[in-house]
Amino acid sequence: MDFAPDATASKHADLMRDFLEDCVYPAEPVLRREVAQTPDVWSLRPVVGLLRDDARERGLWNLFLPGEHGDGGRGLTTLQYAPVAELSGRSPQLAPVAMNCAAPDSGNMELLHEFGTPAQRERWLAPLLAGSIRSAFCMTEPDVASSDAAGLATRIRRDGDSYVVTGRKWWSTGAMNPDAALLVVMGTTDPQAARHRRQSMILVPRDTPGVRVVRPLSVFGYDDRDHGGHAEVVFEDARVPVENLVRGEGDGFAIAQARLGPGRVHHCMRALGMAERAMDLMGARARQRVAFGRPLAAQGVVREWLAESRWTIEALRLLVLKTAWLMDTVGNRAAMTEIQAIKVAVPGAVQQILDRAMQLFGAAGLDDDEPLAAMFAAARALRLADGPDEVHRASLGAAEARRTATPDEADALAP
Amino acid sequence: MDFAPDATASKHADLMRDFLEDCVYPAEPVLRREVAQTPDVWSLRPVVGLLRDDARERGLWNLFLPGEHGDGGRGLTTLQYAPVAELSGRSPQLAPVAMNCAAPDSGNMELLHEFGTPAQRERWLAPLLAGSIRSAFCMTEPDVASSDAAGLATRIRRDGDSYVVTGRKWWSTGAMNPDAALLVVMGTTDPQAARHRRQSMILVPRDTPGVRVVRPLSVFGYDDRDHGGHAEVVFEDARVPVENLVRGEGDGFAIAQARLGPGRVHHCMRALGMAERAMDLMGARARQRVAFGRPLAAQGVVREWLAESRWTIEALRLLVLKTAWLMDTVGNRAAMTEIQAIKVAVPGAVQQILDRAMQLFGAAGLDDDEPLAAMFAAARALRLADGPDEVHRASLGAAEARRTATPDEADALAP
Amino acid sequence: MDFAPDATASKHADLMRDFLEDCVYPAEPVLRREVAQTPDVWSLRPVVGLLRDDARERGLWNLFLPGEHGDGGRGLTTLQYAPVAELSGRSPQLAPVAMNCAAPDSGNMELLHEFGTPAQRERWLAPLLAGSIRSAFCMTEPDVASSDAAGLATRIRRDGDSYVVTGRKWWSTGAMNPDAALLVVMGTTDPQAARHRRQSMILVPRDTPGVRVVRPLSVFGYDDRDHGGHAEVVFEDARVPVENLVRGEGDGFAIAQARLGPGRVHHCMRALGMAERAMDLMGARARQRVAFGRPLAAQGVVREWLAESRWTIEALRLLVLKTAWLMDTVGNRAAMTEIQAIKVAVPGAVQQILDRAMQLFGAAGLDDDEPLAAMFAAARALRLADGPDEVHRASLGAAEARRTATPDEADALAP
Amino acid sequence: MDFAPDATASKHADLMRDFLEDCVYPAEPVLRREVAQTPDVWSLRPVVGLLRDDARERGLWNLFLPGEHGDGGRGLTTLQYAPVAELSGRSPQLAPVAMNCAAPDSGNMELLHEFGTPAQRERWLAPLLAGSIRSAFCMTEPDVASSDAAGLATRIRRDGDSYVVTGRKWWSTGAMNPDAALLVVMGTTDPQAARHRRQSMILVPRDTPGVRVVRPLSVFGYDDRDHGGHAEVVFEDARVPVENLVRGEGDGFAIAQARLGPGRVHHCMRALGMAERAMDLMGARARQRVAFGRPLAAQGVVREWLAESRWTIEALRLLVLKTAWLMDTVGNRAAMTEIQAIKVAVPGAVQQILDRAMQLFGAAGLDDDEPLAAMFAAARALRLADGPDEVHRASLGAAEARRTATPDEADALAP
Q1: Least confident of A145-159, B243-257, C43-57
Q2: Suppose A116 and one of A121, C142, C387, D263 were both cysteines; which one would form an S-S bond, judging by CB atoms 3.0 to 4.6 Å apart?
Q3: Mean of the pLDDT values across residues A31-59?
Q4: Nearest CA to CA, how far is D411 from chain C (Å)?
Q5: Are the Cβ atoms of D368 and C145 closer than 8 angstroms?
């Protein structure tokens, strides 16, 4: 057992720290100004384009994708990527997208990389890896518990050489962005099949007739319009060639699971970065703000917040890193329990840390002069993304109950 | 001891329930549309004007102001007003303002009613009670702990027959509204005086030269632009006649304390109304939403949320009502400890209930199709308004430590 | 609505305060000594006998029993009894038993008072009211979820003019005391009947052949041997006359419910008294203990503990009092939801307050020089007595989900 | 970074698991019987002696002591010892003492090993390592905040060739055991010295005239009489030769800090073992106990308990292991912040897990048929041992506030 990061991880973390200091933090107020000046635009703003050039030059492009892939990606392991991903979370609106590591593109690229045909990869993966287009992932539906994939109401019907997609999705992150040329859509091909064989995944170009982006949704009062928002999207008999199916009919659930695993881990890493940014801000505030004649840092309650927040981050980071290590050594599937655990544990803890940070900043913590309220909203949303916490807790609890069960007892326990 | 509300309270609660059902709830989507159509407007929207007419007709106008005041107010006691105020919190953006009971106007009216000269009351109180103008309260400053009034940097200097106001305020709620004709400003007249005699309160017309509304602030992305937002306001040698001082120099702290007491209680009452609205929504969602083959209401974790939320509301409501009863029977000053207790206890609990409600609604709880995220933001802000929770907790803890102290011990304990 | 106690309640609370100061607190160290000297005795110690004489003289005897009953009881309402019961909880090992208001005797007396035949009342109720015997209540079984009364394994079979009781009970509080002459036993008479008609309640004299007290049980190392402990009791064909049945066959569940209601409320009242005792102790400790040059009461974290504990007690006491008022005005059955709510809410909160108190006392809080650890154990046990919290939470949550349901929706929701 | 344990750690963990299954668990009921039969004995019971022989034979003796020491110890690193120590916590009354790794002996042996003179080591360390005597550590005093070592009232005065010890200690764990031949006592030699140079550490044989063991103390209702209890000890001019001083005058604080570091880590490891034992018990109970027709493991609330408990243990274990790794690689002093963090984080979390386990077991969880209540008491006590949580939290919070401070800011922040 060894808790020291290896040289590759350390080097990339150093690169990332420099990138934040040199490029990303200075770009934050610029983004705010650009958004204020173009309130109706959903595309990336100019400052992001400049940052993307910087990231490419510094070797911080597409690092999310493990292995060699001939496009500037560095072939990091998940464990090596972890510190980079965490650091990118310190500026969640800018750094991930600048590095072409932002959801939902990163997940879609993984999906195409792992499951796409050569033709699919050439048409969609190449421009995504190059950053010349963006994409959206359309899974969640308004009328179905998103945790219960078996019930997806969107239909994908075979009709000759085409598939016809019909249904209503929402929370399609990024889809308000007109540059999101690709919609990856999950829907039901065979409602009579076994629960986890009903769904398929299909690639729908944004300009397909019948695709209609209905409206933006917001998270608290944020519509995330600086890079694509969250859309309600209707598919009214949207017809695409059969070649657009990813893998075969019925493979949708398995593909989604494969796609969500790394995505969840990346979310957790970035959430820890948000928490660390909050810790820095809290520390500075606590040292500099005086109330009743003493700096806040001299007050016992503030010290408790700092202490508990610190050890919570340290413990959860180790759990995230161990999960990454498991993914690298035994595979994503064998690491499923750990992935599920951090998926729940991290966002909840980070939300609480951000709540404390906002409290320490007083009214200043509510407004967008500080990044805290926006990061709180992001952490809060993570407790619902990919299924609410409760579904994962129940599943983890069942796994724990089975851990020491006799075979007979285990049979009696549904997952 | 008797826990039954009296006839006056019951009657007004019934009136209020009808008003909500008949007028307010149907107006909620209308307000959303009107705001969407006029995104740059900070005044009240037309639908609010119609609601205000309804409220006047139904005898639900100015009920916040205790005693007889010849303007349609009904002379309710604080205890009788409590159920009305709570019910108004069920639609926090519409009902309080429709009834002319919204902060900061209500607090400013109380202030003028209690401390204003006849001339001040004629010029400002009368149109406020009539609803023909609105107002703002300018106390919080960016560079001073808002809980530490002794440090206010805004100066109010006497110069002949004028006072000259200089300083920077923020979180001046309502001040973005061009109809907020009156700014009630707290500042320092004598920095050498005893801590609580340094401040004075002065009436500054919005159109006074030197008054500059700098920018809006937001709460979790919400700018509350439907009725006046939260402004940063600069006073650059704004000159007003000496007659605009409220009471005498040095009376500012005492006036502020008197103003804040009822305001805090009203905030708590309305916060309970938000929680009750969330309970209704949660109940409906839990009954109607099915996941994994069972309604959410059949799931143990959801039942726990409902149970804990319910008894928490019941217990805290009783504490709020007892506080109101104390204000009516022994006076606001004697009820100070209880006011402080509910000021902290209620918003924190309501925030947690709203967090659960959002979780139950899934992604739908984050967007503004439901009122939950906006109510969460409002409850969260209450934990900072009028001084952060921690200041009040420390003060309450000191009071508790003194409760059973000998006189010598009590002397040794600073408040 | 009126939050002032009436004259009767105030008078009895004053009597009770004097009794505590004059008699009970001074008796606490005496009891400790007497127990240390007679470690193998399970009966009441001499000092308790003296206290019982004092309580009788002061008119503090049998106050738990509402209405007139010609035995020194004063006919208090539940609401009037509340402050007395709370105060008795400040010395939980001594005061309730001194006043003949301790569980399980009080519940057994209520049961006999309400459901007993004249003969049963003469033989058992009279000496219990007089304090010349004690009793135990035998409901909980080792192998059955105590919340699930339908499954009780103890059988009560009719055999001619007798009932024959067979089964194993545990947590029969008081039964180690040889003076507990009466065991009130719940068992199954008809396992085929409807769920809540299977059980009956029967009076079993301790000296009945076949009754065997097996062993004492302990709560966190405490065996409560000063007044009867908690016993495992085996009934091996224990035969009693048919006249010993309380009411009819199948009435056991209803009787148990009727018995448990007031008992739960009394437990809550006393638990608040434990919390208040802890508050006094915490206040004194915080004022007098110095660490790092300042009294603990000057430290922010301690102040937060005191503040949160204080308002929690205040809010929950009001909920308990309102429940008592409902019991007096609409009846125990109509108050069932409120009884269930306080049954869960109060012990959990009191446990947390006691945990803080122990922390404030450091190691001294763990030992029995202070009453904190023993009170903690008692509060902890209350979270399990009469069914674990979770059963009540689930039931309350279902009730809340039904609150706003349409009739159709309500039908679909099992309680 | 590598999360796999090395071969030495794995081998010892395997040995330890076998030892638990083969020897320790079967001995638990034996110990209970032996204690019941000899209630007044404070020495180790016969069954423990047999276990000690087993442990020696299996190579599980004195493993707590790092490095080579020629007495059967294996020279494990702290990181290698961690799994062994954790496993020993699964049977906290038996396993650590059986392996001669129990507090306070282990800490006293470390102290003698690191700071003792050859003569001191020969006289005391050798028999302690051999297990032929036991020892106690006398630091805590009734009248002084135990976290504030500068205030120790016990005096150690030089008088010719002797030191004379005078003072009152309590919570001297193990000192009720007549076989505890050595008392390691901390007291003040020079009250005028700098805060951390006032104290010295001295070896006082139990049979020294003037040493009086006054009485046992209890934790909740447990007096831990099976292996030495917790004593109040008075030193009335107890005179020992000057050679009994450990190191020099004024070195006491530094020695205590050095002694406490590993002790705290070992406590955390064992606490995790208690939690794991509780997890196994909870799993079995949840699978086997049926309420309302379903096993508890099928109920959502129980699953949440299992899930949260599981990931909390996993995350905290990693933090403990990283701390152990730091101790091995950069030294105990450099790992001080991490040691302090786990010292607070682990016992609090384990207490909560044990509370859940007790709740799952119902009344059975309160009694000593299950180990839960006793483990709860032990975990609760850890939140106070070596200074209450709050002192460590404040210190950690100050460290965090300094983490990103400029030098000037850091100077302004007292630790």
Answers
A1: A145-159
A2: A121
A3: 95
A4: 19
A5: no
User: Which tens digits make up the pLDDT trace of B64-90?
Assistant: 987 665 555 557 999 999 999 999 999
Tell me which of D294, D301, D305, D308 to substitute to probe the interface with B (most B C-beta atoms closer than 10 Å): D301
CA distance C218 to chain A (A): 28
Instruction: Say how far apart CA B195 and CA B254 lie, in whole Å.
Output: 11
For the stretch D395-413, pLDDT in tens is: 999 999 999 998 888 877 7
* Same domain for D227 and D123: no
Interface of B with D (CB under 8 A): 299-302, 304
Indicate if A404 and A260 belong to the same structural domain: yes
Give me D272's structure tokens.
């995790």
The residue of chain B nearest to residue D298, with distances taken between CA atoms, is B300
* The domain boundary residue, chosen from D100, D130, D160: D130
Domain boundary, last residue among C130, C165, C191? C130
Contact D148 C374 (CB under 8 A): no
Do residues D384 and D263 both lie within one domain? yes
D299/B304 touch (CB, cutoff 8 Å), yes or no: no
Q: What's the pTM?
A: 0.97
pLDDT of the residue at D29: 96
Please give the pLDDT value at position B242. 98
Tokens of C71: 């035995």
Q: Which chains touch D (3 or more CB pairs under 8 A)?
A: A, B, C
Q: Which of B292, B294, B301 to mutate to test the interface with D (most CBs of D within 10 A)?
A: B301
Contacts of C302 in chain A (CB under 8 A): 300
Q: Could you give the CA distance from residue A366 to residue A29 in angstroms, rounded to a whole number?
A: 17
**Which CATH number do you get for residue A15?**
1.10.540.10
Tens-place pLDDT, residues A60-90: 999 998 766 555 555 799 999 999 999 999 9
Report the neighbours of B using a cutoff of 3 or more CB pairs below 8 angstroms.
A, C, D
**Is D185 in contact with D172 (CB distance < 8 Å)?**
no
Are B218 and A148 within 8 A, CB to CB? no
Q: Which CATH number belongs to the domain containing residue D181 in this structure? A: 2.40.110.10
Average pLDDT, rounded, for chain C: 94
Interface test with B, best of C282, C288, C314 (most B CBs within 10 A): C314
pLDDT in tens, C103-126: 999 999 999 999 999 999 999 999
A15 vs chain D: nearest CA distance in angstroms?
A: 19
% chain C with pLDDT above 90: 88
Residues 6 or more apart whose CB falls under 8 angstroms from that of C3 comprise B1, B321, B322, B325, B326, C318
- Interval C262-277 mean pLDDT: 96
Mind telling me how many Å the CA of C25 is from chain D's nearest CA?
Answer: 21
Which residue of D3, D394, D409 is in closest CB contact with A287?
D409
| Domain extent at residue A204 | 134-247
Domain membership of residue C2 (yes or no) is no
Measured CA distances, C83 to C1, C272, C353 (Å):
19, 10, 20
Task: Express each pLDDT in B18-77 by its tens digit.
Answer: 999 999 999 999 999 999 999 889 999 999 999 999 999 999 999 998 766 555 555 799
Report if residue C196 sits inside a domain: yes
Q: How much is the ipTM here?
A: 0.96
Q: Are residues B54 and B197 in the same domain?
A: no
Task: Establish if D43 belongs to a structural domain.
Answer: yes
Distance, in Å, from the CA atom of A393 to the CA atom of D299, rounded to the nearest integer, reads 12
Asked whether residue D2 is assigned to any structural domain, the reply reads no
Neighbouring residues of B145: CB distance < 8 A, sequence distance ≥ 6: A289, A290, A291, A292, A362, B151
Q: How far apart are CA C258 and CA C114, in angstroms?
A: 9
Chain A partners within 8 Å of D311 (Cβ): 319, 341-342, 344-345, 396
Does B177 share its domain with B157? yes
C405 and C266, same domain (yes or no): yes
> CB–CB of D50/D93 below 8 Å?
no
Query: Is A269 found in the same domain as A242?
Result: no
Cβ–Cβ gap D304/B301 under 8 Å: yes
Residue entry with tokens 């119902």: D362
